[in-house]
Prior knowledge:
Distance between the termini: 18 Å
Strand content: 15-25%
Low-confidence stretches: none
Radius of gyration: 17 Å
Structural class: alpha/beta
Strand order of the largest sheet: 1-2-3-4-5-6-7-8
CATH architecture of the domain at 64-224: Alpha-Beta Barrel
Amino acid sequence: xxxxxxxxxxxxxxxxxxxxxxxxxxxxxxxxxxxxxxxxxxxxxxxxxxxxxxxxxxxxxxxxxxxxxxxxxxxxxxxxxxxxxxxxxxxxxxxxxxxxxxxxxxxxxxxxxxxxxxxxxxxxxxxxxxxxxxxxxxxxxxxxxxxxxxxxxxxxxxxxxxxxxxxxxxxxxxxxxxxxxxxxxxxxxxxxxxxxxxxxxxxxxxxxxxxxxxxxxxxxxxxxxxxxxxxxxxxxxxxxxxxxxxxxxxxxxxxxxxxxxxxx
Length: 264
């Protein structure tokens, strides 16, 4: 079986306990059938860091972008959105950088920066269209504006994925109409995710990805502990039950979906 963690933050894993180093992460992941990884950047300095840390590993892919909660800080560093956009464009052309992001909107933690978040989100989409690479979208308490901006900026031209999806079926349908994929994280294994699971059951298999978002959102049976890519297996297992499909078949489908979206 072959699983791909479509969204993780390898530089933020707990390398004291229980993990020793990146080799230990990869070994434990491989033992659980997780064989490729997309490690996602959240700001420009973070991108440089992860590229330096993991450049020798050919199973690790990268994204380049600015998380909505980091927009204000990055704007202070780069002074203008144009300067930042040029930097993202340059870095996104580097080998093994297969996506832009994560970008998007987060009104849960920072509603005061809505305008900056929206401007940055639009710019990520525009660069993605120019480079013909997909975007990784973060959306929290902002479904309506997320869809609105994706539609207004013609994001169907670059496509992408709504990572760690927690929205309703109406939101899912609008994303699917734009050619986007929907990614399931450990949240689907939580006891209070009944409505989310009902939605996931309705989404076509050929538009689903799986992710850990590690070190966050550990799935059952590890909820409350630090997450790691090896735990993707438990997300895949739970999703296979939801979709009433053999886990090996699910692994094949989600791997194929990843390679299609990210042009691997």
